[in-house]
Specification:
four-stranded antiparallel beta sheet, alpha+beta, single chain, 3 helices, binds copper (II) ion, Alpha-Beta Plaits, 59% helix
Length: 127
């Protein structure tokens, strides 16, 4: 009788062992998945930081000679805005200058001056 009960216990232990292994495996996988989710999360945070660095822009003020009316300043403004790397441009006929915000990764100060001189004006960096 006692021996039989021992046998049943043994049998139960054997039967439950694979289940225990299975549960352990599931927990292990969940732990790995959790870790990868953390890694992926950290990676996206890193790329977000990279993106914000890349978008860092510079601003220059360009002195322009040769504008005769607001049509001139509007034309320069339109051409600057069409230039790759220029984020924003304001051109003042009254102040004889342009304020240009640009992404230095895509356009240089010299290129910005060139865009203005190609339209027939004299351009130089004021600040
Ligand atoms: Cu004009």
């Amino acid at each position: 009788m006692i021996e039989q009960q021992e046998d049943i216990k043994q049998a139960r232990k054997k039967r439950f062992k694979p289940v225990t292994l299975f549960i352990t495996a599931v927990f292990a996988l969940a732990a790995i998945a959790g870790t990868s989710a953390l890694i992926v999360g950290a990676k996206s945070a890193d790329s977000a930081a990279v993106v914000s660095t890349v978008v860092n822009t510079e601003r220059i003020v360009v002195a322009i000679e040769g504008m005769h009316c607001t049509g001139c300043s509007n034309g320069i403004k339109a051409m600057l805005k069409r230039t790759k790397g220029v984020v924003s441009a304001e051109v003042s006929y009254e102040n004889k200058e342009a304020s240009v915000e640009f992404n230095p990764a895509d356009v240089t100060r010299d290129k910005i001056l060139e865009v203005i001189t190609n339209l027939g004006y004299k351009a130089s960096i004021k600040g």
